[in-house]
Amino acid sequence: MNDPVDVLIIGAGASGAAVAWSLAETRMHILCMDQGGWMNPAHYPSTGRDWEARFFGDYSPSPNIRARPEDYPINDDNSPIKVVNFNGVGGSTIMYTAHFPRLHPSDFKVRTLDGVADDWPIDYETLVPFFAENDRIMGVSGLSGDPAFPPTTPPMPPLPLGRSGAMLGQAMNKLGWHWWPSDTTVATTDYEGRARCINLGHCTPACAQGAKASTDITYWPLAQRAGVELRTHCRVREIVTNEHGMASGVVYYDKDGIEQFQPAEVVIVACNGIGTPRLLLNSASGRFPNGLANSSGLVGKNLMFHPYAQVYGYVDEFTDSNRAPPTCLWSKEFYETDRARGFVRGYAFQFGRGMGPVMEAVQSEAKGVLPWGEQHHAVFRKLNGHRLQLSAICEDLPEEHNRVTLDPVLKDSHDIPAPKVDYTISENSAKMMEHGIARAREVLAAAGASDICVNSPILYGGWHLLGTARMGTDPGRSVVNEWGRSHDVKNLFIVDGSVFVTSGGVNPTSTIQAIALYIADQMKRRLADLFD
User: Fold this and answer.
1) What is the 3-state secondary structure (H, E, C) of 142-203?
2) How far apart, in whole angstroms, are the C-alpha atoms of residue 482 and residue 127?
3) Beta strands 387-394 and 347-352: pairing type?
4) Residue 315 gets which letter from DSSP?
5) Burial (Cβ within 10 Å: 0-12, 13-18, ≥19) of residue 116
6) Beta carbons within 10 angstroms of residue 365's beta carbon
7) What is the average pLDDT value for the chain, to the nearest integer?
C-alpha cells in the first residue's frame, strides 16, 4: 500500500511540470506520475548521422509508428490528421519545434466577436502574468514590438533570420503583409544553465544540446529541488472515487507491470487532449457510468487539431536547409475574421527554413519532383538546400462529432482500452486552408520560388490536442470550471490542452502552460476549500 499524498499529478509534460512547480511552494506532498521515463540526450537522433532516418522509426512523432514501451496505440483511422505526441518526462516538449506564440486576445471571445463557438470563461489579460512567468522559466527568445500582438518582453533576443528568413521576409515586404521574428524556446544566449543554440541539428527529434527548452530541463529540476516527487514508468489505468463521489486516488501499473493503488487527496490530470479523455472515460463507475467528470457528456468531444496547409517551393539561392531551428518567423496578416474571405476566424503563417537531405529526397520523390534515372542527382542538387516553406496553421472550431472515445478492441500493453479518434475537417476550416494555400503561393512567387508543392492537411500534423474537456461556467456545457476544477468531482482538476474552449490559430504550448500556472495559482488561493 502506497502512502497517501496531498496532490497527485498524472502526466509530466508541459502542463504537469508547470503545475507541479507552482504548487511546490505550498509544501504539500506532491507526487507526479508519468508512463514514460527520463530521456537521455546522448541518445537523441541529432547526436548521429542517421537523425533523419530515425524520424521514421524510434523517434517518429507518431506513437503508432514509434511504438516505444511507454507509448499507447491510438486508433486514428477515421481521421485525415494523425495524432502525434511523446510520452516521457517532458512530454511532447521533447519533440516540439519550440515555436512559442500565445493565443490572441480575440481567441478568448469568438462568440462575442464572430458569433461562433463559445467565449472562454477567462480572458487574455487574466493570463498575462502567467505567460510572463512561463516565458522566464522556459526561456523564450523573441523580439518585442510586434504590431499584431499585445506587448511582450522575451528574456532573450530572437533567433537570427538566416538565409531563409531573410528571403521570406523580403517576399512578405513585397506583398505588404505582416511578418515578425517568431517567439521560440530556443536559447539564443546562455540562459539558466542552457548554452545558446549552435545549430547542432533539427529541433523536432529532440535537442541533444539542451538549447531547446523542454520541461525535463526547465521546470522539473526546479520542482524536484522544491520537494516534488516524480515517479516514472507508471501507467495510470483509472481514477478511483469514494462513497462521497470524490477522487480518492488512482489505480496504476508500476515499472514492473504490477497493479498498484495510490491514494491522494487531490488529483490533477495533465495527459493531453487524447490521454485525458481516455483516462476519464476509462474511470467509469456505478456513480459515474458515462465516465468520470462527464455529466455534461462532453468528455472527449470537441476535439480540435489545427489543420495545417503546408506549401513549399525551390529557389536558386541556398537556403538554411536543416541548419538552425526550423521556424524563424510568423505572420498574423490573416489571423482575424474578415467575412469577405468566406470563412470566420483565421490562421497564422509559420515559416520554415528548409529540409534536411534525407527528408528532401523522400518527400520530393513522393511528390514526383525528384525523378529516378540519369537526371536523379542533377535534380536533387537543385532541390537539396534550396527549399523555402510556410504553413497556414488554421483555427479549428469545436464540433462535438470530432471526438475521442474508447476503442472496443484495441488495447495497450497493460490491456487498457486505447483511444479512438473520429475527426473531420469542417467546411469553415477547409475554406480557410484553401485561402492559406493561395496566399502561400503568392509569398513563394514573390520569393522567386518554383516547383510549388502542397501538403494539405499535413497527415502527421495532429500535434495540438485540444478541447476534449473544455472549461466553462455552465456544468451542462463544460467539463471543468473557470479554474480547472471538475464540475462533478470537486477535488479533480484538469490542466492540459483539453480545457481549451477554442483553438486559436497558433501553437498552443505557451497558452497551455500559462493556464496550468493560472490554475495552480487559483488552487493556492483556495487551499482550505481543496481539502473540505
Assistant:
1) CCCCCCCCCCCCCCECCCCCHHHHHHHHHHHHHHCCCCEECCECECCCCECCECCCCCCCCC
2) 12
3) antiparallel
4) -
5) middle
6) 14
7) 95
Cell numbers for 341, please give them: 474571405
Of 265, 268, 275, the residue nearest 237 (C-alpha)? 275
Q: How far apart are the first and last CA of the chain?
A: 24
Instruction: Give the integer Cα–Cα distance in Å for 409 and 54.
Output: 30
Report the C-alpha gap between 485 and 494 in whole angstroms: 7
Name the DSSP class of 44.
Answer: S
Q: Is residue 437 within 8 Å of 454, Cβ to Cβ? A: yes
Q: pLDDT tens, 258-291?
A: 999 999 999 999 999 999 999 999 999 999 999 9
The answer to whether 341 touches 435, Cβ cutoff 8 Å, is yes
Euclidean distance between CA atoms 130 and 248, whole angstroms: 30
Q: What share of the chain is helix, strand, coil (3-state, %, to 5)?
A: 30, 20, 50
**Shortest CA distance to 96 belongs to which of 245, 16, 18, 203?**
203
Q: For residue 371, how many other CB atoms are within 10 A of its CB?
A: 13
Q: Show the cell assigned to 246.
A: 470524490
Model pTM above 0.90: yes
Q: Are 7 and 28 in contact (CB under 8 A)?
A: yes
The SS3 call for residue 435 is: helix
